[in-house]
Amino acid sequence: MDQLNSEGMGLDAPLREALWAVVGNGRRAGRGTRAAVEQALRDHGLGVLARLQRDALAEVCGLTESQAARLAASFQLGRAAERARMGERPSLKRPDDVARFLAPELRGLEIETFQALVLDARHRLKVRVEVSRGTLTMAPVHPREVFAPALRLRGAAVIVAHNHPSGDPEPSAEDFEVTARLVEAGRVVGVPLLDHVVCAGERWVSIRESGRWPRET
Fold it and tell me: Where is the MPN domain (predicted)?
């Protein structure tokens, strides 16, 4: 294997070969193309590149339009396959279930997004709703947007989650404040908030399990 392929990109050999097969359309990608893609992987990481659209991939990785289109499509298929493994209506009884379910949507995002998961009485997913999409450090949240889908679909409970693009899943003071507001709103409308999970890469923190869950009056 030549030096370009063996330099550390955080990818094992089979994944590197799959990457070059996609970029090269079944043929070995050119040396210049491989060098540009490897540099992009070192600079940004696979998770970030996987979130980019075709034009951004072409610019960041130095790819042609057709190469970038194939790579973007392969990333999209990978996310779809990851979601499919959990089924259309996964049971979300534990925070790690939530983190695993949302990983394809949240991994590599460079802005915060706030998600509401409406559950039935057996904690199976009825619907996932992106409540808001914000900046690098915050995504505005209003209780109405969180609980309206649950009331419309007669959901039994709600779990919320959001990502920290910084890579640190430790909840902020604002995260605890938002949780307290949502717990109270859920009590008022009769749809309890079960947890608030903060995700960052492969790590996550459950606010309910953190010992700082708001007291429910």
Answer: 91-213
